[in-house]
Amino acid sequence: MKYNHLINNLREISSQIKNKLAKNEDRNILLCCIEKAINHAKNGDIERAFSYINKLYTKFIILQSKHSPCCHYYLFLEKLKNKLLKCYADQPVEVLEEELMELINQRIQILTVLSPPAGRPPNITGILREVKDGIIKLALQNEHEDSDTERMGVYRLSEIIEFIPATEEDSECGDGDETEVPFNDELEKLIDEEIKLFISESTTERISITGVLQEVKDGYVKIKVEQENEIDIEPEVRVYQTDYIVGFSKTDSGGTPGMVTLEVAVQWPEGVEHPEEVDVILTREEVDVVVETIDGIAIFITEPSGDVILRGEPVPGFEIPIKKIRLTGNQKYVTETLEYQAAVIPVEGVILNQEELELIVGSSEELSATIQPPNASNQNISWESSDENIATVSDDGLVTAVSTGNATIIVTTEDGQETDSAEVEVVSIEQILEPTPITALRGEVIVLPEIVRAELSNDNLVDLAVTWSFADEELEGVFEVPLEGDITAYTLTGNVEQTEQSITLTINVEDSQAVPVTAVSLDINQASLLVAETLILTETIHPGGATTKEVIWSSSNEEAATVTDGIVKAVNPGIAVITVTTIDGGYEAYCQVSVSSIPELELIYATQEVYDSPEEVTINVENLVEFLELDDDEEILYYIKVEQSGSNRSLSSGDDTVIINNDSIEFNLYEVTEFETTQNYSKEYFVYMSTDPDYPKADEQTLMTNFKVGSPVPTVSKENVRVNLEILGGPLEGQPQDITFILAREIDKEVIDITWEDYIDPEAPEGEIEFIDEVKLIGSTDSEGNVIWEEPRESLKLGGYFLLEVTPEGYIDNLNLVNPESEDGELLKEVHLTRGGSIERDIINTYIGE
């Protein structure tokens, strides 16, 4: 593939993000940009691929601006950003060069990949003077205003992420200055959220302030700060100038409920060479969790109590550090260290990965040796062959067959002279069996055999790969018999791997025409799967009497789902489109697949994420009743209490009780506990239920759920609802514009059956489509598939909505599939707007025919 280097780089970045970053909106945006960039690169649309790479790079910078340059998150993003820079080696500059040529002698602003301190993107403004040989020259403001000499800035086209014509406002900032990304826009999205501000009024001192953001206005921010250790004193409102804010981050409101964050720092002796990063293994009840360190620190999210064992991976020349610790359940954040100690560790043995090899003359295979123990100080080994006339072996263990016969490959350790060996039998190909001739019709597409069978000198048979050619032109696995002509037989030549031999394949042609394929369809067009589940798809070739029925299966996202011969296997949470393509004609059919994790059953849960008042809070216990399997007259008394995240102070008496029996469905929490509320709307309230008034920490003894109580008028901006549409197949493929979407309040109907038509106003004039009042947002897609929302009919309030599409005729959308990010099996169409939150949906339309 032309852009393999680019695609592999992006896949590696994607893998690191999935392994290191917690699931949240920022992570989703990063992975979405990468996936779209990879897909466009695969399709050869490198310009669109780099439009998403540019977005990815900019997002890295914005995320870094919210964190301290010393924190692990910032440094991890810096590593990813540096890796992303390698992708720019593949960036085509021809189009960029043409666009810039049209702006000669005009003022422009460029964003480059060069990062100044604090990770701010350098937006450089100047007058474009020259574009030549991959270089541009900008006339920047001269430091001496009375000088007639222009100060020139020279930049490589390959280092320019994007550019825009500069406005007058840009020029007032000073040509050539690096203009910082303003914090105001990002901070305004966090009103009423608990955040941490990093403030510096000098070059040497910096402070951090944690509190609830109240207001961002006129160059100032207001933040409400709780008085330390003073529960009954009103929070203090402080005001800071935005000019002094050097960074900010959204705080974790209490961490993962019911879990503890365990940070393990790896230490090494000074002056001793060692690897930069290692794996740390946490073992609990014989189950291992492996996390690679970032800057020497591994972070685990684990159960809050119990015994765990921590150990580092084996490193040659060091004792393996092992530590057993006991988590008490009283802490939310625990720090530990693992210290590697240098030591002279003798070699005790060596093991080869294979004991026997069979090689064809001229072929090679690599052996690998593992020294025991794996952390032995001296890892040096040597290789030798008992007969180099039969087989040779390199210093890296690569065995090459020279002539027929038998030889022994021996590996020896430098320390202790420990050995292991592998027996090699070298054979030759005695005969390649000619493939059976194929009979075909005129116009028929023939799928050629991928392997041929060969007979070896030891009488064994082996399958060897073969590539075919006709008239000196290499074939791509198929041969199409010409429709016209009077040739009755075609002879193809096959080159067999591991040999210099060739074979022939005869295709005999009958004097009648093949029935061509005109279409293909699938029995299933949509499916929601749990991880590890399988789905069998069956294709139907049209017409039924078509001559060539072979097809090719593929998945748009093999990290989410793979497919082999129509059998789909769910691998990881995500969205994939399974495509079946006919060999004859290249016709396609699609199945949209959503893969989600196995949902965790919540025995109790709040019926809403956010309530307008405490009196509305309702706790559902249906799952608990089903789990308990009570007798008809049996009742169980549960104690119940309410706390707010970040505080151990109970907001209720703690002695309140509720009785659960077979008729229990839900209860009003306020009526049972009359719990207190606070003015901190960003924090969650936690409800604990237990049959034990001491509320033991074990999950099976104490149940927990959470909710928020909102401010009187909580609203969400339409910009926080981001939707993108992609269309596959049919007449609209690649043309996602002018498709209508709506965001509507929930109605009393089965979720899976709800469509946009349920919201049509029956009293609208004939021939016109108007929506009822439950529709709060209406928008349509642009040429890139992004939904542009009209002004909302009224302020968007917190709560549940449905996202629906006026799907084009002949297509199906994926809104009825399970959301891979959902923990309880909700569909993609189900949207929950929360304070300061946002939602992002990638909608796919696949063609199923008129």
Provide the fold topology.
Elements: H1 4-20, H2 25-42, H3 46-65, H4 72-85, H5 94-101, E1 107-112, E2 123-132, E3 135-140, E4 151-156, E5 160-165, H6 168-172, H7 184-188, E6 194-199, E7 207-217, E8 220-225, E9 236-241, E10 245-250, E11 260-267, E12 279-284, E13 287-292, E14 297-302, E15 305-312, E16 318-319, E17 322-328, E18 333-339, E19 341-342, E20 349-352, E21 356-360, E22 364-366, E23 369-372, E24 381-385, E25 391-393, E26 398-401, E27 405-413, E28 419-427, E29 429-432, E30 438-442, E31 445-447, E32 451-456, E33 461-470, E34 473-474, E35 478-480, E36 489-496, E37 502-513, E38 519-522, E39 526-530, E40 534-536, E41 539-542, E42 551-555, E43 561-564, E44 567-570, E45 574-582, E46 588-596, E47 605-606, E48 610-611, E49 618-620, H8 622-628, E50 636-644, E51 656-660, E52 666-668, H9 669-673, E53 685-690, E54 702-709, E55 715-716, E56 721-728, E57 740-745, E58 775-781, E59 787-789, E60 796-797, E61 799-805, E62 811-813, E63 830-833, E64 839-847
Helix pairs in contact: 1-2, 2-3, 3-4
Description:
The longest helix is centred in the first third of the chain and has 20 residues, at 46-65. The chain has 9 helices and 64 strands. It is mainly beta and 850 residues long. The strands form 18 sheets. Strands 29, 30, 32, 33, 34, 36 and 37 form a 7-stranded mixed β-sheet that branches. A 5-stranded antiparallel β-sheet has the order 4-3-2-1-5. The chain has a 5-stranded antiparallel β-sheet with strand order 9-8-7-6-10. It is globular and about 90 Å long. Strand 32 (451-456) and strand 33 form a beta hairpin. It folds into 8 domains: 4-172, no CATH class; 184-250, SH3 type barrels; 260-342, Immunoglobulin-like; 349-427, Immunoglobulin-like, CATH 2.60.40; 430-511, Immunoglobulin-like, CATH 2.60.40; 519-596, Sandwich (Immunoglobulin-like), CATH 2.60.40.1080; 613-709, no CATH class; 715-847, Sandwich (Immunoglobulin-like), CATH 2.60.40.10.
